[in-house]
Amino acid sequence: MSITLDNTTxxxxxxxxxxxFCPGGALAVAGGDAIVPLINRLGTRFAQQVLTQDWHPSGxxxxxxxxxxxSPFSTVPMPYGEQTLWPDHCVQDSPGAAFHPALKxxxxxxxxxxxxxxxxxxxxAFFENDRNTPTGLSGYLRERGLKRVFLCGLATDFCVAYSAxxxxxxxxxxxxxxxxxxxxxxxxxxxxxxxxxxxAGVTLIGDSGLLG
Length: 212
What we know:
The protein is of the alpha/beta class. The chain contains four helices and eight strands. It is globular. The two termini are 12 Å apart.
């Protein structure tokens, strides 16, 4: 797919490229660090860039450790729906919450921190998992006149997919650069997320074609 970028209306949104989501981290995504050089190269093509950062307080309710007898990747009901429980990860100000040290995006103008409310998880760059509490990203993009959102990062089937679908919900064109993403693929979650994105009108690009 050939895409002509418009630096006045296009934005690169880099999802959760943090130490804990890369090999050796608390919630590592296989090959998560392998996409860092590609994301750095993508950053040279976009004048507008936004980063997201998981930013959990200790004892967050999405942590399995907050639910005695529960193990990571099991689920529990929460007021906003079924919640997958995770290993403790991206705890505020911890080394694991930092961006990957090789990530070089000096042109990024905004960092959206999410998941900082103790009782609710947050996958999307746009909304908490209750699907109602906004992060403020939509308003930022609109005020900047940005209309097309290009997403990459971790993980394809959770935070990237939720962000892409919410971008469409908010009226933005959404593109997921699959070669610059990696997935957890928990019990078929990648296939399910891919189907949901397509149904929502997200454009999936297997070979980004943006680097020329």
